[in-house]
């Protein structure tokens, strides 16, 4: 393998129902910095049916070029045809770097592509940077339960592949009016015994938004005490308004108090809200990894030595069961006065 033949930073664009997911825009934003360090371009790769209309927005959020695989039958994600398509993109375009979001789709697709093209894959990265000397991609991820951060290089194979958790990277300010180069690519997709047939798609509906989209998160840990006491957190979120959602630590998910989709932390979701309420959360490093980039952190905990106070902007030592009803009432009174 001649490494010099591989150029450019490529990003797999995840779309669901022809809507690009947020992590794809985040990866495009980080890719711009990587590409500038390498003196190269950013290429978005999107697969689907009728996705050509999405190329303009991809350009605004960082893509210099968009490779489009557009054909009937690819509207919904399926492992084998998507793996064949991305592998064909690698074979034709020879990217130096190929990035995926660490979503359910990305975690299914990326390892299969890496095996097909015979290269390595670093999963769940929290930091990506270019080594100034070797120009290799430095891929950093938590290891040993989040107790250390490991930086991994893929020096002898290309492309250098990584998955990145949603919420870790940041989108760039849109380049309004930027028009990317568009390549329509038609790879050979051979049906084989790995193909599946989608018989039915059932979508879960509900009033709650994804916690990664919330501007305010009211997050509870083991210190909440029991699942019924999460009603205190829901009442506070209701007082704060439409931009607030309830989330939790892993301990609450493991205990069956809350759903997996509400979990913040290394094995849950990485969030970056405007305000993060850490209620009854001790502040283990695994939890901090998922929320320490929040703009404002408010912690309430009985234990004044809890690690959460080391990262909190505002801390209250006390019983959340007594404090939260008072806080919710104060917020409602203040909002009513302003109205």
Question: What does this 3D model show about the protein?
Answer:
The chain has 339 residues and is an alpha/beta fold. It has 2 domains: 3-184, Rossmann fold, CATH 3.40.50; 211-338, TPP-binding domain (Rossmann fold), CATH 3.40.50.1220. 29% of the residues lie in helices and 24% in strands. It contains 9 helices and 17 strands. The protein has a 7-stranded parallel beta sheet, with helices on both faces. Strand 9 and strand 10 (148-152) form a beta hairpin. The termini are far apart. The model has no long low-confidence stretch (mean pLDDT 92).
Mean model confidence by pLDDT: 92
Summarize the main sheet: 7 strands, parallel
Q: Would you list the SSEs in sequence order as H and E?
A: EEEHEHEHEHEEEEEEEHEHEHEHEH
Total number of domains: 2
Percent helix, as a range, is 25-40%
State the secondary-structure class. Answer: alpha/beta
List the helices and strands and how they pair.
Elements: E1 9-13, E2 15-16, E3 19-20, H1 22-38, E4 42-48, H2 55-60, E5 65-70, H3 79-93, E6 97-101, H4 104-117, E7 121-125, E8 127-130, E9 137-143, E10 148-152, E11 160-164, E12 181-184, E13 216-220, H5 230-240, E14 244-248, H6 250-254, E15 275-279, H7 285-291, E16 296-301, H8 308-311, E17 314-317, H9 320-338
Parallel strand pairs: 1-4, 1-6, 4-5, 5-12, 6-11, 7-11, 13-14, 13-15, 15-16, 16-17
Antiparallel strand pairs: 2-3, 8-9, 9-10
């Amino acid at each position: 393998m001649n490494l010099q033949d591989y150029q450019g930073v490529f990003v797999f664009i995840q779309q669901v129902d022809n809507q690009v997911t947020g992590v794809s825009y985040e990866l495009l934003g980080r890719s711009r910095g990587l590409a500038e360090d390498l003196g190269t371009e950013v290429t978005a790769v999107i697969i689907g049916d009728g996705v050509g209309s999405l190329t303009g927005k991809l350009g605004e959020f960082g893509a210099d070029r968009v490779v489009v695989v557009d054909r009937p039958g690819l509207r919904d994600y399926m492992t084998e045809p998507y793996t064949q398509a991305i592998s064909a993109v690698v074979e034709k375009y020879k990217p130096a770097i190929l990035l995926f979001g660490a979503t359910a789709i990305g975690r299914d697709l990326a390892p299969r592509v890496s095996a097909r093209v015979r290269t390595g894959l670093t999963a769940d990265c929290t930091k990506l940077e270019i080594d100034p000397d070797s120009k290799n991609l430095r891929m950093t991820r938590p290891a040993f339960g989040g107790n250390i951060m490991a930086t991994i290089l893929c020096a002898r194979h290309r492309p250098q592949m990584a998955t990145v958790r949603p919420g870790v990277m940041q989108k760039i300010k849109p380049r309004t009016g930027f028009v990317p180069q568009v390549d329509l690519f038609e790879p050979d997709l051979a049906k084989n015994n790995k193909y599946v047939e989608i018989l039915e798609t059932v979508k879960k509906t509900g009033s709650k938004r994804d916690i990664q989209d919330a501007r305010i998160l009211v997050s509870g840990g083991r210190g909440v005490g029991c699942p019924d006491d999460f009603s205190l957190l829901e009442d506070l979120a209701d007082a704060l308004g439409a931009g607030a959602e309830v989330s939790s630590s892993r301990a609450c998910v493991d205990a069956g108090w809350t759903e997996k989709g509400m979990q913040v932390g290394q094995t849950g979701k990485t969030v970056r809200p405007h305000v993060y309420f850490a209620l009854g959360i001790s502040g283990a490093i695994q939890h901090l990894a998922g929320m320490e980039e929040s703009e404002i952190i408010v912690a309430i905990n009985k234990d004044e030595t809890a690690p959460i106070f080391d990262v909190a902007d505002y801390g209250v030592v006390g019983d959340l069961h007594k404090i939260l009803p008072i806080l919710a009432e104060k917020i409602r009174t203040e909002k009513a006065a302003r109205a």
